[in-house]
Amino acid sequence: MSNQLTPEQQQRMEENRRRALERRAQRLGQAASLNRPAFSGSSVQSVQSHKPFAAPVREEPPVPLSESNRFVPPFKKNQSSHTKAPGPALISAAQTSRGVSTAPPPRKLQIIDAQPQNKGQHVNSPVLSGGSLAVKPTHAQSNNAPSSNSGGAVGSFYKQPSKSAPNPEARPAPSSFAKNPAPAKRPAISLRGKCVPHTEGRFRVEVGFHAQLIDVFKSIPSRNFDPATKMWNFSLEDYQHLMQDAAAIASVSLGLLEGMEAPDIEAATSRARDGAPLGALLRLCSGWQKPGAILQGQCVLVSPSKFEVDIGYHVDVIAAFKQMPTKSYDMTTRKWSFSLEDYKPLMDRLSGIAAVEVEPLPRAIIQAFCARFQGPQARSVDIPEADLSNIDPTLTTSLMPFQRVGVNFAVSKEGRLLLADDMGLGKTIQAMCIAAYYKSEWPVLVVAPSSVRFTWAEAFRRWLPSLEPDSINVVVKAKDNLRSGLVNIISYDLLSRIDKQHPGNSFKVLIMDESHFMKNMKTARCKAALPLLKAAKRVVLLSGTPAMSRPAELYTQILAVRPTLYPRFHDFGVRYCDAKQMNWGWDYSGSSNLAELKLLLEECLMLRRLKSEVLSQLPAKQRKVVTITIDGISNRTKAALSAAAKELAKGHRNKTEEKEALLVFYNYTAEAKLQAIMEYITDMLECGREKFLVFAHHKLILDHITAELSKKDVSFIRIDGATPSAERQLRCEKFQHSTKPYVAVLSITAANMGLTLHAADLVIFAELFWNPGVLIQAEDRVHRIGQTSNVNIHYLVAKGTADDHLWPLIQEKMNVLEQVGLSESNLSENAINSSFHSKDPNQRSIMEMFQRSFTAEDDIDESLLVEAANEWDDGTTPTVNNSNNKSTNKRSIGDYFSR
Ligand SMILES: Nc1ncnc2c1ncn2[C@@H]1O[C@H](COP(=O)(O)OP(=O)(O)OP(=O)(O)O)[C@@H](O)[C@H]1O
């Protein structure tokens, strides 16, 4: 690509430069008129005069503000200092700390650069250049990074630094975290700025251009750039976050916002150690390439406290290794590893060997594990127990020990995490508890696959009974209000049709269920979630399978939780996706350094427990009610369903008629659930459930599922009444031994016994059946000897259908079976769904009718039932009142039961 600028470009640059100079002159003029120092690169502070994070040394006179632009901070803690402040002018941060406020003394963020900027460098030009880094196939690819969008699917999640932006890796690393910077190396602050009140609830940063600072701005969720003033403004919520990140830029000093607490940089950096301050460690991340090197190697983190140097043989390298006190050589892998406390001394030695180039640990790793570089005395602290006393005891007392650990982890990460527990480990209850911990910041938004929206609503009702039922808002139409409830639940698909930019549509607490739905930045789902993620303070991502095939799929989720960890996808891709430059661009489909990635995720944002790890805490069978919706059904089915319900509510002359009416209702229920059932199965597949069983009763449903699976090219077996006995075993074997995703589509009545399918641990009941004994037998196709996991049973239950009556009936009968020891898990404990306990006397009587009609002693001949269902499926709709309106050539349902 040519470096020549066109005359047009040159003219534009010149104009920009002129404008920038004008702006700067204006600022200097304003500053002079306020009788205070201007933000200038020339006002270099004496390095002797301060320590990082010590009380400010630069005394700024009060900034006069008029009454109209007086800023009232939202934090009670400091408000007194303002309300008591005399006169129209606000007192400065320094004065506040000294005189009035009880808050800890605010500190001026002054950062020391190891390598001072060029004197005379203009504040409006990028402070540091990208450097001239050698591009090598393995290590130096990031210097050849593509522009923001070349990150493929994920390149533009949070706006990435543009190609022209200097590479932050190539700049001297900040030393803001140094406790005792070496005096000789202390740098100059080249750019000063300050935070001032903006509109209500926001502040802006008045500062000149600094590429690295712009990167920080762009990583702040609530950022907004005002083109008129050319200034960035942010929500006060992000103040601490921004100031902490800005503090890491050595050459920048930002004045505190009046009335705000000083950012807790000390806490963030207290882990940095004397021997290897973070700044010094971060400096190793840049400038490590050696154009003349003949041997290349790489440092890789291999445990939270150890790193390995992957490099070929070189006598000087081995000599350097041998001098390290914590050295360890693995004879099998032939690799040397060291404790992190030896990282800096070793890297210093290796950098002195001209022929050898060793890629350092990435910046993200250094920041995440900074405490571990301090040596054995500074190993990680236990995660503290979160105070859950303000949360409904129904929820907190039910948490299993590992779930409590999950909540503690989330709180220790300030409500931003990826909870990646194995399926069925209760991510829902943990997420609700985490959200409830931050209840003062509600309303909360839950984004979930559409098939489980109502299940979420039920879960909130069940576990947080103190919530008013009408405070739970399930958004079903694009024009519905997204914030009408305290708890709001919406599907990913609907989200993409709602105006997220609407100021009223942002949430501080966000739960994204099945967050791998966002794995591809290009999808509408991901784009829809983006503005919400940027604005949220607490982000709880839930997924049992955050990445299904490659690490690149994790990127958007990492960015959603920790935007500053890997702000550029390309850097992530080079380290963990084995990025390769092809003719057509970069290929990020590979994987590399996976063990290190796992360590990084676990340290910073991810918690994942496998069933095998917590098996002793789990019941052997875990049943779950999945509330599905039949909203999308045709008017014809809707009308038929309600006619069937009405017919059932009428008195009936005899038992046969009663049964017939019930079965008609049951049959129409099958029709109504068809679409939602398939939607749920599709979601399960998309969530990475590889092998599972789906039981249904109606041929209509079995046919529909198998047809749809064929269309999706998903392998399946089907066993129903028409499957010859010899064939059954073969099909089971096929399912058991297959290594690819497989679904077993089974008839409740024809495949509930005699089959072993324990290669799966998930059973979905697409339909209910009135005989719980049959259901338990069906469940036991996976829950049997040979099963090494606990099994999950999902019952799909649709409101407004026969399920309303069948489900309580099943629950009651299962409880009876459980009491006599015939059902292993207590359904009322594990799968209770209070809204299905109908108090409506009319519904109750229908349920009793079901109970009466299908009691054990009067059990229906299953084959007749199947035949009846088949008849229905064949398109002959039996009439409710068979005596008046009987089909001439087909028997009605009533015929099957009149004996
Ligand atoms: N502490 C608990 N006490 C009682 N029931 C629980 C508890 N934790 C989870 N469950 C039940 O276990 C079932 C599975 O929980 P949940 O659906 O939250 O799992 P999950 O991790 O989200 O699974 P998936 O990844 O399949 O969605 C649900 O019926 C839930 O109510």
Structural account:
The chain is of the alpha/beta class and 899 residues long. Helices cover 34% and strands 14% of the residues. The protein is built from 30 helices and 25 strands. A 7-stranded parallel β-sheet has the order 13-14-12-15-16-11-19, sandwiched between helices. The chain has a 6-stranded parallel β-sheet with strand order 20-25-24-21-23-22, sandwiched between helices. Strand 1 and strand 2 (202-206) form a beta hairpin. The radius of gyration is 33 Å and the shape is globular. The structure holds adenosine-5'-triphosphate (ATP). The site of adenosine-5'-triphosphate has 17 residues, from helix 13 and strand 20.
